[in-house]
Design brief:
Belongs to the 3-beta-HSD family. This is 3-beta hydroxysteroid dehydrogenase/isomerase domain-containing protein. Keywords: Membrane, Oxidoreductase, Transmembrane, Transmembrane helix. This protein has about 500 residues and is an alpha/beta fold. The protein has a single domain, classed as 3-Layer(aba) Sandwich (Rossmann fold), CATH 3.40.50.720. Strand 1, helix 4 and strand 2 form a beta-alpha-beta unit. Helix 5 packs parallel to helix 6, helix 6 runs parallel beside helix 7 and helix 10 runs parallel beside helix 14.
Length: about 500
């Protein structure tokens, strides 16, 4: 027994040191760096939220309300991949608002539009062509469909917004799905655009491309100073990485940004006099419809288990993202623009205001939504520790698929609780400096039409009105997020890939 005592004492000391390390790491993960506080010093008050809500109830944001701020119509026809979705849908609505005939627009998507603002009026008359862009043949068939004679002679612009979002997978073992849709699918769109005679291609990529994995596990002796923080705990989202050599797969926080970076370089490398190309990087989370992950996600769940209330990030409304696409198209439309500084490169865009904290978003929903909502605060280090066995379990079923007979795959939100998720849930300050420059100075003249406050409150206004109508009729309103849609697409295509 005497011999056991030193080992027990040593074990107790080790446990205490590990506990102290984890407590300190938890403190660091719950902190907001001084540099981030400087760019986002104030939080939304309930008074500000109520006043904004009342203003937008009286004067809601619609495509008609900002029509006079859109660029004039161009004499062209359009293919919008992903046109049923968030950014693509707003591009279609803005094209129609500025006078584009429905017959000159074609939506190419995996599913038909389900957005309520696209099911009535001119948007309901826009042609839909179902396609799986991971298939070259399917993409080609959708692009090659004949056009009405009245518009068939017009030059063709392709807006490529179709993609799948899988924010939590980082292993190359699970890269094939992102690669099939986001990388090979983009190549298929570029090839089909050329064959269809398009001379402008603007693609949606992602501000997350520039982000690096956060290094949470600091050396113990580096954790105790006042300035300590995890490596890359706050980052700037811009385009600087595009002008450097491509990074290795492991230098992206997950498969999604790695695939979008590869897709972006495919599009930009395709720039030529016959097909002028460029990319828009919305940063960081895109919102603007109850199917989005940023605002719609917590609205639909009614509860937000979170460790990110203090996290500060830049966001961009789908309206602002769509406007940026149209502005880049206008620069690339002239035949000689392939040599313009705006061609063959990406532009990061964000809402025209400082970044906000997730606590602002939760306060907004809790104060304004007619549906129940509550926040459950979680300890970040505990969730980080749980994320590793979740990732190991997911990867084990990939490596040994026979195990699925006895061990079911994780479903829903749990399957996405993996280490990569913590790198996307970090402080991100985006800059639209390059995009905001005047066209003559190499920019696209980007100015967002909505602030994050206006855009998020407007989404809750629409949510409330829809739920009040549904409640009176005894009906239920259900939306599917883009992450959930990606899960469904993966299941639907699993047997055909």
């Amino acid at each position: 027994m005497a011999l056991d005592r030193p080992f027990l004492a040593t074990g107790a000391v080790v446990l205490v040191l590990v506990a102290l390390y984890l407590v300190r790491l938890n403190q660091l993960m719950k902190s907001t760096p001084a540099a981030v506080k400087k760019v986002s010093p104030t939080r939304w008050t309930k008074k500000l939220l109520r006043e904004t809500y009342q203003k937008l109830e009286r004067n809601p944001v619609t495509t008609k309300s900002y029509a006079n701020r859109l660029l004039p119509k161009l004499g062209r026809r359009y293919i919008v991949t992903g046109g049923s979705g968030l950014v693509g849908g707003y591009i279609v609505l803005q094209l129609l608002e500025r006078g584009q005939p429905p017959g000159s627009i074609r939506i190419v998507d995996f599913r038909t539009p389900i957005r309520k603002d696209m099911l009535t009026g001119p948007a309901s008359a826009v042609e839909f062509a179902q396609a799986d862009i991971s298939s070259a043949a399917s993409t080609e068939t959708a692009f090659a469909k004949p056009w009405p004679r009245a518009v068939a002679h017009l030059p063709l612009t392709v807006f490529h917004t179709a993609a799948i979002i899988v924010p939590s997978d980082r292993s190359k073992l699970t890269y094939s799905f992102c690669e099939a849709v986001n990388v090979r699918g983009t190549q298929h769109v570029v090839d089909a655009s050329r064959r269809a005679g398009a001379d402008v291609l603007v693609s949606t990529t992602s501000g997350s491309i520039s982000l690096r994995p956060v290094g949470f596990w600091l050396a113990p002796w580096r954790m105790w100073s006042a300035s300590s923080q995890p490596r890359d705990f706050w980052q700037v989202a811009d385009e600087a990485d595009f002008f450097a050599p491509p990074r290795r797969h492991g230098e992206y926080y997950a498969n999604y940004p790695a695939s979008k970076a590869a897709a972006e370089r495919i599009v930009c490398a395709a720039n030529a006099p016959s097909l002028r190309t460029g990319c828009i990087r919305p940063a960081h989370g895109v919102y603007g419809n109850p199917s989005d992950n940023t605002v719609g996600g917590p609205l639909n769940m009614g509860v937000a288990p979170t460790w990110t209330s203090h996290i500060v990030q830049s966001f961009v409304h789908g309206i602002n993202a769509a406007v940026a696409h149209l502005q880049l198209e206008a620069v690339l439309a002239p035949p000689g623009s392939a040599s313009a500084p705006q061609a063959g490169r990406p532009f990061t865009i964000t809402d025209p205001n400082p970044p906000i904290a997730y606590s602002d978003l939760y306060s907004l929903i809790g104060s304004l939504a007619v549906t129940p909502f509550r926040v459950i605060l979680l300890q970040p280090v505990v969730m980080l520790l749980i994320s590793y066995p979740v990732e190991c379990y997911n990867l084990l079923l990939v490596k040994v698929p026979q195990l699925r007979r006895a061990f079911p795959p994780l479903m829903g939100e749990v399957k996405h609780l993996q280490p990569a998720l913590f790198s996307i849930c970090t402080h991100v300050v985006a800059t639209a400096a390059a995009a905001s420059r005047r066209v003559e100075d190499g920019g696209i003249g980007y100015t967002g039409l909505l602030t994050t406050l206006e855009g998020m409150v407007q989404e809750v206004v629409e949510w409330n009105h829809e739920h009040q109508i549904a409640h009176a009729a005894g009906a239920e309103v259900v939306y599917q997020s883009s992450v959930a849609l990606a899960d469904d697409i993966q299941k639907a295509t699993a047997g055909t890939s």
